[in-house]
Amino acid sequence: MTDEPAITLRNVHLTLGEGAGRVHILKGIDLEIGNGSSVGLVGPSGSGKSTLLMVMAGLERADKGTVQVAGSELGALSEDQLARFRGLNVGIIFQSFHLVPNMTALENVAVPLELAGDPAAFDKAKKELEAVGLGERLGHYPAQMSGGEQQRVAVARALVVEPAILIADEPTGNLDETTGTQIVDLMFSAQRERRTTLVLVTHDPSLAAKCDRMIRVRSGEIEEADVTAEGIPA
Ligand code: ADP
Ligand code: MG
Prior knowledge:
The chain is α/β, with parallel strands linked by helices and 234 residues long. It is built from seven helices and ten strands.
């Protein structure tokens, strides 16, 4: 652990799409997120929140500006280096779970470790599934599990590499309130216990309020940053 921020974005611009469909999505984003902190990104639909997460995760490259995550300057990495960076440093949880349908829960969670060549992939995946309360579901396929169970598998898959950064895009958007709360508790306890940096997008004010900071995004710009959930400058 150092005092260096886990994530630093400087004047980040990104345009996506082709021809008439080109959209200037991120318009000069400046942001610092402290090591081990939790940040909730909020803002209207279409404001660029998901795109901003993808840039932090190294899944989209900025057209302009610099993106520094977990000590790496992402713009300087080759595609292979960027893939390795993602595999070792970033865990991502999506609204729609994104599990591989023809793999069991255990196989899904083992994937990131197998890609990294870890010989203990299945042992670690089993422990991670036990930690999210799915020790009895190791051999189940996604279609045989409820939405909440599938999202637990996705949380286990995100955490199994011990990522520096945990990113979640509306992780409770497809879950009922009780199940959503369980997923949120899992993410926050992982963040605290492992000192992971957590960045999540949510429309749920009670979820955003659990974060150390909220950042408001509007039309691809930061509208308001560095405020705590109570509106106090962080
Ligand atoms: P949010 O997550 O805040 O709802 P997004 O980051 O998904 O917003 O999208 C921001 C804007 O960029 C939207 O207008 C969306 O339609 C557009 N957009 C997102 N991805 C692409 C893409 N690959 N090509 C073109 N436009 C895109
Ligand atoms: Mg989105």
